[in-house]
Design goal:
globular, mainly alpha, disordered C terminus, Major facilitator superfamily (MFS) profile domain-containing protein
Length: about 475
């Protein structure tokens, strides 16, 4: 029996995964390279009491930047990324996802490679270049939402959106490879390596991807017709001059989705920022000492994102459950269960393995976000999924500043389990509460503001 040829949209889905990996390559190579740039003299005390300086590895010129300057450099990408997300949707809906991704990735690689020329005693020039990379990179996730809206049939969006979690692979692979490159060739090659990856990526993107199935020269006519029939006229690959911001601002389903995504990002930022500090300070647990275990939570979220995406698509394709039941049912898993699990950190004592297990469980449950908050924008208005996602990310990313501030304030007097209870109670309640808001008031119905006039077509892609 001959093997069944996968539909062409499968290759587009894989490019979505590759895109998120490349996007995170630009984010996560930098902290590793920065270690080799900053001058941190070390000393060693001999048996006779003599203190000698320990030479640092020669990875290239080093600079004596202060700790707070180093922290600003690490966070610089996200200053730009937050605002890039906000403009990403309208940009993509005007120029199309094909050219938006092609251009933004090239600019990110060019700025990153040229950044080695501005590494100097003053940290400001490098800070500026990292903000610019974040600003340009911020348009990419909204662009992918727009692309998914055009390529994925409604009952297959779970698997497509799960491909957004390719960022986990991008993080793990990038940080491993960057460490090897910097150790052998110097920190400047950590920057240059992004250019090599970009060349491979842009070549594949230019060949495989198009703004829509109708504009692809490789997608079969039968598949184009099938995707079009599945969309039932809800998706139009035409240029949008102005997103319906006023209608969106007064749309209850979209406002509920913003709350829903805010809870999702609150939980993620809490796990990525303050939970490691809790485990180190209170549980006396060093994440670096367990090696691979430190990446288990994120890897678990990646794997179960595909599991939940496949289950949801199966339920929708077989019409076992209506879409509203699937979205709100999985909201219990993606938001409510992680919130409940966070409360369990308060009763585990100093059991290290149980702390790791709970952390993994939170991320396993949150893998269901691929069929809840990460895909609901496609339900409401696939024509403006990019704009929706950009606004959601802009507001949701604020939790990245709020969570650490709350943790610092709550543990100011004493850094113990009792004071950390405040942090976990707030986070668990908010995580679960945002999920409950969606369960009560969320919608999966196409909104009236999804419609847009058929003006001129989006810019023609290279593969039309």
């Amino acid at each position: 029996m001959p093997l069944r040829k996968p539909p062409y949209r499968t290759w587009v889905a894989l490019m979505v995964m590759f895109t998120t990996a490349v996007n995170y390559n630009f984010r996560t190579f930098f902290p590793v390279a920065l270690i080799a740039i900053v001058d941190k003299p070390k000393s060693q005390t001999l048996d006779n009491g003599t203190v000698i300086s320990v030479p640092q590895p020669d990875y290239g010129p080093r600079y004596s930047w202060k700790p707070h300057e180093e922290g600003q450099l690490i966070g610089s990408y996200f200053y730009g990324y937050t605002f890039g997300s906000l403009i990403g949707g309208p940009t993509t809906e005007f120029f199309g996802p094909y050219w938006t991704m092609l251009t933004s990735t090239f600019i990110c690689a060019a700025i990153t490679s040229l950044s080695v020329l501005v590494v100097m005693e003053s940290w400001i020039p490098l800070f500026v270049t990292r903000v610019l990379v974040g600003l340009v990179g911020g348009v990419q996730y909204p662009a992918l939402q727009c692309l998914i809206g055009r390529w994925a049939p409604p009952n297959e969006k779970g698997k497509f959106v799960a491909c957004l979690m390719g960022n986990v692979l991008g993080t793990v692979i990038t940080q491993s490879i960057t460490g090897v490159i910097v150790s052998n060739f110097g920190w400047n090659w950590g920057f240059f390596s992004t250019a090599f990856i970009t060349v491979v990526y842009l070549t594949l993107w230019a060949i495989i991807v198009a703004d829509s199935p109708e504009k692809s020269w490789l997608c079969s006519k039968e598949e184009v017709e099938y995707i079009s029939e599945c969309h039932q006229g809800s998706v139009k690959a035409t240029r949008s001059k102005k997103p319906p911001i006023r209608q969106m601002a007064t749309s209850i389903p979209f406002l509920v989705l913003i709350v829903f995504q805010f809870g999702n990002l609150w939980g993620l930022y809490m796990l990525l920022t303050v939970v490691p500090k809790f485990m180190s300070d209170v549980l006396e647990f060093n994440l670096k000492s367990v090696g691979f275990l430190s990446s288990c939570p994120s890897l678990a979220r990646l794997v179960f994102g595909f599991v939940f995406g496949g289950i949801a698509d199966f339920l929708l394709q077989r019409e076992i459950l209506p879409k509203v039941v699937v979205r709100k049912g999985f909201a219990v898993i993606s938001h409510v269960l992680p919130g409940v699990t966070l409360f369990m950190f308060l009763v585990i004592g100093k059991t290290v393995w149980l702390a790791v297990l709970l952390l993994v469980l939170v991320m396993v449950f949150n893998g269901a976000a691929v069929v809840t908050c990460l895909v609901n924008a496609q339900d409401l208005a696939p024509n403006f999924a990019g704009t929706q996602y950009g606004i959601m990310s802009f507001i949701g990313s604020m939790s990245g500043f709020i969570v650490p501030a709350i943790a610092a304030e709550a543990t100011r007097e004493k850094n113990d389990l009792a004071h950390w209870a405040i942090v976990f109670c707030i986070s668990g309640a908010l995580y679960a509460g945002c999920g409950i808001v969606f369960i009560l008031f969320g919608s999966v119905t196409i909104q009236p503001w999804n419609e847009k006039a058929d003006t001129e077509s989006a810019p023609t892609t290279a593969n039309t």
